[in-house]
Structure formats: structure tokens, C-alpha cells
Design goal:
With 266 residues, the chain is of the alpha+beta class. Helix content is 18%, strand content 32%. The strands form three sheets. Strands 1, 3, 5, 6, 8 and 10 form a six-stranded mixed sheet that branches. A five-stranded antiparallel sheet has the order 2-11-4-9-7, with no helix packed on it. Strands 12-13 form a two-stranded antiparallel ribbon. A hairpin with a 7-residue loop joins β12 and β13. The protein is elongated and about 115 Å long. The protein starts with a helix and ends in a 10-residue tail after the last helix.
Length: 266
């Protein structure tokens, strides 16, 4: 009877512990209305066009231009940046490249993906992709790990014949992230995400005091606090299972140690 009660209690605790994990299992970024997606791109880090994850941002430019976008990435996310370049009907061989930088403007390496591709003469489009490493909530100062904050996407051509310089091109960029969960959690977090100032505005009517305005973009639901992850759920489940094993072992040991009863008069 005691074992059945212990099993019931353990199952109840397991259900309560697994509930937060199920609530957090939703995708980190959902596609937004394309009607509000940006139609232009910046030409430098300071003028990078802000986009949300899940948006299909587009822009028109000229071959040889640098096109910049920026997006937010939070801890435990693994962003994937995809870009498509539409080329004119007639063109020579071109090589295009996509690079991703963090809020400190450090270039982040791609785990995999076609970061650089060459479009043969007459090819209508070229597709690029870059899968970043998982964003960490905290890292050592000497490390180059991705950290929560703003990320920049730079799209440009790196091998262009003089005859194609300045020809019109179209570009589309999309960023999606996969939530890596507690497996990517670390002990510690940044006090603030790496969101650099992107503009300057007056704080008083007389314009005597000016200050920086931080980027307005942030993940859906805001930046994570850094301390909670589903790793706590599995830790709680392990503790419950250990307690259950201890109760079962104690009950079996106590039952096997009892002396057998001898009938009266035997």
C-alpha cells in the first residue's frame, strides 16, 4: 500500500515537473505577416535594416553594394540565416557571400551551410545559408562564443567582373532559429544583451542633452532571464526517481528482514 502511494506521488510530481517543459516547447520564432517585412537594406552596420526572425525581408540594390540587416537572437537559440540573390538575365560569373556578425561586430563562423557560392553566367538566382553556433547566455571574455543580442547580416559579391559592376540585383533574407533547450544552458548570464546604440535623439526640448537610442528589436516575449531552462526540469525528475528508488529499496529490504511467524503450538 505504501509503495502504491509513493508511486502515485512520484507520478504526480513528474507531471508537474514536465508541465513547464511542455509550455516552453513552442518554436522560438514564428513567421510574421510579410506585409510588414522591410523592403530595403542598410549599407553599413549603423544603418542596418532591423528585421524580426521569421520575416522575409527584401531589398533592391546594385552589384558591388554591401547590404546589411540586423536581427535579435537570444540564449539557447541556433539561428539559421538564408539569403537569395536574383541576378539579371545576362551577367558573367559572380561569387556572392553572406557574413554574420554579433553585437560587438565580431564575425561569427558558420557551423555549416553554403556561405559562399558562385553563380555561373546566366544563372538567375544564387542561394546562400549560414547556420550559426548556439547562442550562449554567458561566456568567457576571451571566447568568441555567440552571445544574446543584435546580430548583423552582410550580403555582398566578392568576385565581380568590371562589366557587371552596378547592374541591378534583388535580395531576400530570412532568419529562423531552433530552440536548443537546456542542453545549451550555461551557469550565468549577461546583465544586458549586446544591443548597440543605433541612433541619437534629443532628450529635452532645447536639445541641450542627447543620448543613444538602443535597437528596438528583441525576441518574441522579451529577452530571457538566463537562469531558467528545462535542465531544471530533468534535474527535478532525476531527484524524484532517486527518491522513489530509495523508498522502494528501503521497503524491500525491510520486508525481507522480518522474521517468519511461527504458528502457536508448533
Amino acid at each position: 500500500m505504501r509503495i502504491n502511494r509513493a508511486l502515485s506521488t512520484a507520478l504526480l510530481l513528474l507531471g508537474l515537473a514536465a508541465a513547464p517543459a511542455a509550455a516552453d516547447s513552442s518554436p522560438s520564432a514564428s513567421p510574421s505577416d510579410d506585409g510588414g517585412a522591410p523592403k530595403t537594406a542598410g549599407t553599413s552596420f549603423r544603418t542596418a535594416t532591423e528585421i524580426e526572425q521569421g520575416q522575409d525581408a527584401t531589398a533592391n540594390g546594385s552589384a558591388g553594394d554591401y547590404l546589411y540587416w540586423s536581427f535579435p537572437a537570444d540564449a539557447e537559440q541556433r539561428p539559421t540565416v538564408k539569403a537569395t540573390v536574383k541576378l539579371p538575365e545576362t551577367h558573367a560569373s559572380q561569387t556572392w557571400r553572406i557574413d554574420v556578425y554579433d553585437g560587438l561586430r565580431r564575425r561569427q563562423a558558420c557551423q555549416w551551410g553554403a556561405q559562399t557560392r558562385t553563380a555561373a553566367a546566366g544563372t538567375p538566382t544564387v542561394e546562400l545559408a549560414c547556420v550559426l553556433r548556439t547562442v550562449r547566455a554567458w561566456s568567457e571574455p576571451w571566447a568568441n562564443d555567440p552571445l544574446p543580442g543584435t546580430y548583423y547580416v552582410r550580403l555582398t559579391v566578392v568576385n565581380l567582373p568590371t562589366s557587371d559592376l552596378g547592374v541591378p540585383v534583388g535580395a531576400s533574407v530570412r532568419v529562423d532559429s531552433k530552440d536548443m533547450g537546456g542542453a545549451a544552458a550555461v551557469d550565468g548570464s549577461l546583465s544586458e544583451p549586446l544591443v548597440p546604440g543605433v541612433a541619437v535623439t534629443s532628450q529635452k526640448d532645447d536639445d541641450s542633452e542627447r543620448g543613444a537610442v538602443l535597437s528596438a528589436i528583441e525576441p518574441e516575449g522579451g529577452w530571457s532571464s538566463g537562469w531558467w531552462s528545462d535542465r531544471w526540469v530533468w534535474t527535478g525528475i532525476g531527484a524524484v526517481l532517486a527518491a522513489l528508488a530509495g523508498i522502494g529499496g528501503y521497503t524491500l529490504t525491510r520486508g525481507s528482514g522480518r522474521p517468519s511467524r511461527v504458528p502457536p503450538g508448533a
